Amino acid sequence: MKTMTRKEEIVSVASQLFKEKGYNAVSMRDIAQAMGIKAASLYNHITGKQEILSTLILKVAYEFTSGMSSVLDKPTRPLQKIEDLIILHIDVTVNYSEGLAALNNDWMHLENQDLDAFVKMREDYEANFRSIIKEGIEVGEFKPRHPEVILFSILSTLRTLHLWFQKRGKLDVNVLKKDMVEVLIKGMI
After folding, report:
1. Are 99 and 15 contacting, i.e. CB atoms less than 8 angstroms apart?
2. Using only C-alpha atoms, what is the Rg of the chain?
3. pTM
4. Integer Cα distance of 151 and 133 in angstroms
5. Which pLDDT band, with edges at 50, 70 and 90, does 151 fall under?
6. What is the CATH code of the structural domain delimited by 50-186?
7. How far apart are the first and last CA of the chain?
8. What is the pLDDT of residues 82-124, one digit of tens each?
9. Cα separation of 150 and 102, whole Å?
10. Cα–Cα distance between 102 and 98 in angstroms, integer?
């Protein structure tokens, strides 16, 4: 098991606080108090709260981006690609729930090139997802529904999965993957 660096510890503690209270409601003093150190000590490892938020959100965004690239690189049919993307979202939810909460709730607090990078990744991700849906409709794998409605329906469910999943306790992830794929895709085929 890899030992966390001090910066990784700070990001981890802050991510839990951001998830509980929201980015704006958390101060550097709150993060330091939760870690049992003085706020000034945090600045030996990070430049400020914005760096924490950027680190947290961009890490999750890169997970989605690299996951999408992997799905697009496979020579599979659109239905399999959508299944793979649903599973990707579940894996990210399970492994990065605090980061996902920040990504969904606090991304608008990113600044400058970090905001630009995130918005571009999100737009590209959605465009790729939309293209897979359109291809699935064109080849007859999916019902001829409006691609935006399908995209919205799937992504709204998956983007809030972290809220639902944490309330369910120890739901078996394999059951979740199997059932979520089945439920989300039944309306498309």
Report:
1. yes
2. 18
3. 0.88
4. 8
5. very high
6. 1.10.357.10
7. 43
8. 999 999 999 999 898 888 889 998 999 999 999 999 999 999 9
9. 25
10. 6
